[in-house]
Amino acid sequence: MERQVWLNGRLCPAVEAVVPAVWPGVVHGLGVFETLRSEGGRVFRLREHYERLVEGCGRMGLAVPGYEGFREALGSVERMVEGGAVRLRFSVLGAGDGKAAWLAVAVPMEAVGEARLVVTGVRRAAGALLAGVKATSYAENVLLQREAEKAGGTDAVVLGPDGTVAEAAMSNLFVVRDGVVTTPVLASGCLPGIMRAVVVETCGLEGIECREGAVTVGDLRRAEEVFLTSAVRRVQVVATVDGEQLVGCGDAGVTARLARAVEARAAAEAVRL
Fold first, then answer.
1. Which of 1, 6, 20, 74 has its CA 20 to 30 A from that of 107?
2. CB–CB of 74/104 below 8 Å?
3. Tens digit of each residue's pLDDT (9 = 90 or more) over 23-80
4. Three-state helix/strand/coil letters over 190-213
């Protein structure tokens, strides 16, 4: 079957999904997107993804669809993918004068294995206008991941303006030491991840101490466990940092416990598209 996408209210073949080449969303990368995970036609924290999309579009001055339109668009493309978990993406692309094109795409989700982190010297800019926005101008993140892959990793560690850890290029980051979970504060320049918030909540429900604070590169390297979070990966174990194996705690560790709890919440709380 020819791949279908949803563009401005209708399904069409991907090769026919066209927007003008002179639009700001194409020329300047003026756009916002959300990536979600669907299983059996159900998505965890759908409303929160929509609210973050609305906030990002508001900061860029872009028109955004209503919640039901967002939901229906994702459902339309999700049903075109057969079997298993599905990776969904909804993009808002600037068309000028506050107008925008709305695009929804679905692809089968790839298996999630252990992550291997590579620490970079790249720092997020202090006071960046797009801090916290999931913008379509994503080239820096893509290039960081490529550099990590060249070094034998799967994701790159990005630093905040003060040189402490902010996040990974494609996900939020948590460290575990002496049973305490720590994640960088939002002021570090990291994205306010939907799954990051879920994990912080889940720590409270599970009686696990969780702190939002400064995480140094040294803390990262000395951690007993490190894990990444994103809407698609949910909780992903980190096996190595700069090629050095982490101690880890296997199925008895904090990461595994949180992964099980998050999966249980996703199964119980996901809503149908």
1. 20
2. yes
3. 999 999 999 999 999 999 999 999 999 999 999 999 999 999 999 999 999 999 999 9
4. CCCCHHHHHHHHHHHHHCCCEEEE
Judge contact between 239 and 245, C-beta under 8 A.
yes
Please choose, from the candidates 32, 26, 83, the residue with its C-alpha nearest in 3D space to the C-alpha of residue 55: 32
- Bridge partners for 271 per DSSP: 43
Establish how many alpha carbons lie within 13 A of residue 219's alpha carbon, considering only the half-sphere containing its beta carbon: 21
How high is the pLDDT of residue 20?
94
Number of domains the chain contains = 2
Q: What is the rounded CA–CA span in Å between residue 212 and residue 185? A: 5
pLDDT of residue 1: 60
Per the DSSP assignment, residues forming a β-bridge with 35 are 89
Q: Where a domain ends, among 91, 108, 125?
A: 108
Look up the domain containing 159 and give its range: 115-269
Nearest to 132 by CA among 184, 181, 65: 184
Enumerate long-range contacts of 33-36, CB under 8 Å, 24 or more apart. 33/89, 33/90, 33/91, 33/92, 33/134, 33/135, 33/136, 34/89, 34/90, 34/134, 34/231, 35/87, 35/88, 35/89, 35/230, 35/231, 35/232, 36/74, 36/87, 36/88, 36/89, 36/90, 36/231, 36/232
The length of the chain, given as a count of residues: 273
The count of other CB atoms within 10 Å of the CB of residue 232 is 19
Q: Which residues of the chain have pLDDT under 50?
A: none
CA–CA gap between residue 64 and residue 133 (Å, rounded): 15
pLDDT of residue 128: 80
